[in-house]
Amino acid sequence: MVFAKKGFDSATVREICRDADVNIAAISYYFGDKERLYVECLKAAHDCADAGPESMPSWPDGTAAVDKLRAFIGIMVGRTHAPARPTAMQLLMREFAHPSAAGQEVILQYIRPKAFRLRDILHELLPGADPRRLLMTGFSVMGQILFYRQNRPVAELIFDKEAVDALDAAAVADHVTRFTLAALGLEPPYPLAAAGGSRKEEERTPESQSPDAPRNQI
After folding, report:
1. Which residue has the higher pLDDT, 98 or 130?
2. Helix/strand/coil for 177
3. What is the crossing angle of helices 65-81 and 169-183, to 10°?
4. Going by CATH, does the domain composed of 43-190 fall within 1.20.120?
5. Burial class of residue 46 in the structure, from the number of CB atoms within 10 Å of its CB (0-12 exposed, 13-18 middle, 19+ buried)
6. Where are the alpha helices (H) located in 61-160, listed in sequence order?
7. In this predicted model, what pLDDT tens digit does every residue of 2-45 receive, in sequence order?
8. Backbone angles phi, psi at 70, to 5 degrees
9. Would you say the pTM of this structure is higher than 0.85?
């Protein structure tokens, strides 16, 4: 895709039509102009990269904020683990790194509703929290989720493709949820030992430690 390789400004209508093997008048007939074509390409790329089996639910009254966050993370992780065309990801990453005027429509229509949904969940989860903390917490949650989509090729080079492939959507969603809730003090921290292993370190108390052992100071 020409837009993915060159961006909106550098791509020309002539090379787009040549690449698609269509008459140059086709863009004007079907889309109106190059900018409208770019917006539609961004929408298609977003649909490809954000595809998933589940949509955001409308939670009934009384649903706990923790359950909403767990569901939100699960859905978003499921979407980012779904296969996506490399050109779709390339186009989106280019647009997110250097937002264009044409791309604002896609960001406001597709990205902002999810960002506001997460912000509302965090506001319910952390009542009275400073707005800056809510914003940074939301960035932290989405940063964890998007890492597995945006940085997967690099992670595979570093840690091997087989190791990264083993991080399935269910495992990642559980990790991100538990990590986030533990960081916010809403759930216990991860156990020090692996499941089924020794838990001696977890069971040690200050009384069982050596009198000379250093203590945390508050």
Report:
1. 130
2. helix
3. 140
4. no
5. buried
6. 65-81, 86-97, 104-106, 112-125, 131-150, 152-159
7. 998 888 889 999 999 999 899 989 999 999 999 999 999 999 98
8. -60, -40
9. no
